[in-house]
Amino acid sequence: MGQFYRHAPRYGVGLLLLAAYQLFQWWFDTRMRLAINFATAGRSAQAIQLGELLVAAALAGFVVRVLSRVAIFNAGRIAEYELRKEILERLLKLGPSFYRKMNTGEIMSRVTNDLAQVRLLLGFGVLNIINTGFALVSALAVTLPISLKLTLASLSPLPFVLLITRGFSHGFYTRTRDNQDALGKMSARVLSSVAGVRVVRSFGLEPQEVAAFEKTNQAYLDKSLALARLRGALGPILTATISIGVLVVFWYGGSMMLRGELDAGGFLSFYRALGRLTWPLISLGFVLGLLQRGRAAFSRLTDIFSAIPDISDGDSELPAGAVGRLEVRHLSFSYDGRPVLDDVSFELPAGKSLAILGRTGSGKSSLAVLLARLQPTPRGSVFLDGVDVCDLPLATVRKSVGYAQQNAFLFSTTVARNIGFSLDEPDEHEAISKIEEAAREACIESEVLDLPDGFDTVVGERGVQLSGGQKQRVALAAAFASEPKVLVLDDPLSAVDARTERAILSAIDRQRSQRGLILITHRVSAAAHCDQILVLEKGRVVERGTHEELSKNGGIYAIFAEEQRIESELQRLGGVALDDQQVAE
Amino acid sequence: MNAPASPTRQERGRADKTRTERILKAFHEEERFGKAYDARLTKRLWGYLLPYRLLLWASVAVILLTSVGALVRPLIMRSAIDGVVQKGDRVALLHGGLLLASVLVIEQLLGLVQMYAVQVAGARAVADLRREVFEFLQGLRLGFFDNQLVGRLVSRVTNDTDAILEMFASGALNAVGDLARLFGIVTLMLVLDWKLSLIAFAAVPPMALLVMLVRRNIREAFRAIRAKTSRMNATMNEQVTGMTLIQAFSRQHAAASEFDESNRSYRDANMSAIKWDSIQDAAIDTVAAICLALVIASFGHRAVSFGTLVAFTAYLSQFFEPISQLAQRYTLLQAAMAGAERVFSLLDIVEPDAPPRVGKPPGDSALAVELEDVSFSYKPGSPVLREVSFAARRGERIALVGPTGSGKTTITALLLRLYEVESGTVRVFGDDVAGLGREQLRQRFAVVPQDVVLFPGTVATNVAACEEPDRARVEDVLGRIGALDLFAARERGIDTRVDEYGSNFSTGERQLIAFARALYRDAQILILDEATASVDSDTEARLQKALEELMRGRTALVIAHRLSTVQKADRILVLRKGRVVEQGTHAELLAQGGLYARLHELQFSRAEQESALQSALEQVPAE
Lengths: 585, 623
Description:
The complex is a heterodimer of chains A (about 575) and B (about 625). Chain A has about 575 residues and is an alpha/beta fold. Chain A has 3 domains: about 1-145 and about 300-310, ABC transporter transmembrane region fold; about 150-260; about 325-410 and about 465-575, 3-Layer(aba) Sandwich (Rossmann fold). Chain A contains 20 helices and 10 strands. Chain A has helices spanning about 1-5, 10-40, 45-95, 95-100, 105-145, 150-155, 160-195, 195-205, 205-260, 265-305, 365-370, 395-400, 415-420, 430-440, 445-450, 470-480, 500-510, 525, 545-550, 555-575; strands at about 325-335, 340-350, 355-360, 380-385, 385-390, 400-405, 485-490, 515-520, 530-535, 540-545. With about 625 residues, chain B is α/β, with parallel strands linked by helices. Chain B is about 65% helix and about 10% strand. In chain B, a hairpin with a 2-residue loop joins strand 1 (about 365-380) and strand 2. In chain B, helix 3 packs antiparallel against helix 4, helix 6 (about 150-155) packs parallel to helix 7 (about 160-170) and helix 8 (about 175-190) runs antiparallel to helix 13 (about 305-320). Chains A and B meet through helix 2, helix 3, helix 5, helix 7 and helix 8 of A and helix 1, helix 3, helix 4, helix 5 and helix 6 of B.
């Protein structure tokens, strides 16, 4: 637990403060005994003097106690903050092989639940372990001088308190987990019912749905009541156990008083010292349970921050006057032993355009991500201005080779910041004009201006919902705004209508004059805009040439072309496109 | 579009920066916290507690009883101690000790019963509310769901109701007992010795002031923690989801610093809570100690029994206990009210599904379905169906054909009255659908949608569309569509679990389950929206056979994409832009040489191209 050592000074201060606090407690109890004895003996002046001292001690104790808690709990929070920061920084470095193994839900669960366990251990846990030790010493320092026998007798139930809370701690953990599972099942049921509402309505399944839901609802009710029973039982069981100690003090201590072995002040301070021990011991029971879970949680976190990134920086540099000439030589690639690309070669001179055409599963998207090293590109296969991309720093490669993915993803921030995602200062004048220019180029500007706050409208998961086509065009604008030397567009037209398609294609034509362009597509009409076309099938280049050449030779490209002509004819006969408001996603 | 005088966005550059930040800031104010107490909401919530009011009243009674116990305990201590000190009464001491212990244990047991009673009442009331919300969703019209985020609706049923439950689980009701106890403590102390009480209470006003000040800060801190937690988790979730994009644009540093900001403010919010919480926690202990010191100091002056002193000490520690919980309870109450507000505003929506109305006079009952001048639009101004009229006789098989967006699926939705017609009449067996109960209407249909929806459960529960399927019948229908062997081959047969979204079944298998579901239902009219996805030839053959079985002896409306299906139909309706433009048999329509003939020709040549492509691709060597 490196976090613990890193914050050793903080914990050290906390430790000293806790020791000081328990010292105050001891002092308070012993002086209180004296004061009471003075008072009962009629020496009121001395009693009052001591009383004043006690008030002062209580106030000093207040400050020390606050500081000790702040020191240790803060150390726990700071450690949590640093762990979380480290985890995220690691996540940002990790490549696709990691994300294939661990999905977003799993990562989130570890970063929230497991980290919370670790933090509890580092804050609450540490505080209690230290504090219980000191409290025990401080309480014994009060009670032992009074009577060894009374101390032993009254402390006898305390080990049971420890055992009981430890058991409860485990019970709470498992029942809380069961409770969460039941809640998860219920949510899943609601989700499927709402997502499948059309079928539910069509079949008149409402009563069955309510019955199925009610089952999960009842199960959740049962689980939460099971948790409530445990929660409720802890108090009585603990009190019953602790009250045995109180009973002992009263009975045995009382008879000692009667025999004159114990004075009134001693009785009261003994009673108070015993009371001070109760809470620390109860907490200690919980901490013991926490210790085990915290360790398991920590090892689950280790899976993340000890994962090795599969793509790393190279240390060469691009030659001066690099223009963005891209070359792919005999590139072969496979996922988990399944080959996806086989001996692909091509060259893209600076400022030229290339279309890669293929059906779903032909390997065209895999090729797109390998160019910018978003997957572990094999060494010696992709060259930028003559330098192997594996020898270049990742930032250089990705700045030069821009990539717009097929499933456009938007962050929950403003449209402007989504488009200006690659810009360091998206709010500066220069950036704003660049963003607006990019939006215009991607044919999204007028629609953005129609949004409630224009470019400042928050979109994404939690913001205003854009249609699939709009999202794709915002992503395209973001790619334009990043101004790479080579732009790789993965099927940028899969969700836009014909009119927008034409507008975007002409924008792409204009972009071509500024940068090299690789267009991944399944549409012949889009590929026709490019200087050169590769047809990919089963990971191999099966045809290559210009649109004119390929259309004439009667190969696969020509068949694609004819098929798509028929498709668009069918579309045209339909007149209007599918009413997209009809289908609720 | 823009007025000429309005400044361009660039000219507003600087102002925009703050504007962007303002909008983002407003956006990140995740949860608006309203009042902790809202009479209207409380009254409405009370309605759900009514059936369990006996539990609640009993629990209030028990709370008051345990408060009495807590008040009596110090008195027992006093008399026992005084008995010893003043009279040397050893038996009184033993009795006092035993009495004290039993009061304590009884008090705790009663406390357990009471806490549990409140939980039961609360949890049951919330479960009832949850059921009501779910049932309410079942009664909303389909159009309502078209523009709703699924996640938000799920939240209404789960998270928001949970916030209400938490209010009961946390023991907020105990505040009643705390108040009663506070009152009792003050009274008893005054009665025991009013002068000593006044000295003891001397420390209370400054402490009350401190606690009040701290409490507001704690409340604020808890509120901040809630908001920061959800923002931090949302940011991380989003960054992990958009990781490819971040890496593609080399924005790791920007992403890290954005996350750091939310991580840091989460940490700071927590540290602020720690500070105030520690102050409150220590303040309560300290004030008890100070009071004790004051009482002891004055004890020297005045003739007060030692027992009274002990009782005072005990009362003082009881006095400060409940204060420490006020802040947490307040935030929980706020969260509960916010949850209730959201749940109730959903329940207030009035958009019933197929509400019964007075139907138009019955038509010809020999016609299974009949549309008369039906017009419809999902969005005003963009009509999807325009004055469509057609009818299907009982037992007739009709194929609906037309390009995407021509209104085929909409027609089937209107037959089931999933949406309301704008004008015109839809009749089923002669009855106006508007006049039929929704169950009465929809039980006449079996529907196979284009995208198959599978529910959590097993193959059998999905076929039967209920939790207790008639297994023999499930096997029978699966057998009749020739799919029993497919599912029987699985380890658990028809009891095979269906994973989320049916991901453990192939497209063809999911189709067959949907077919079986329709056959199990055995309705008079079949509506089938043929899937466009291509399946392997074996599955295709199974589906064709299953379709034949499914249509046997039924009126069938099929939205057809396969030529073979179209050719099997008794009549073909060709739709275009929301109108029926042609109808007749396959042969008749081909002879007419209209839209159908053209569509057919295109489909045919597309199929030709497809097979040409297949043979061309077969020449590409496999790896």
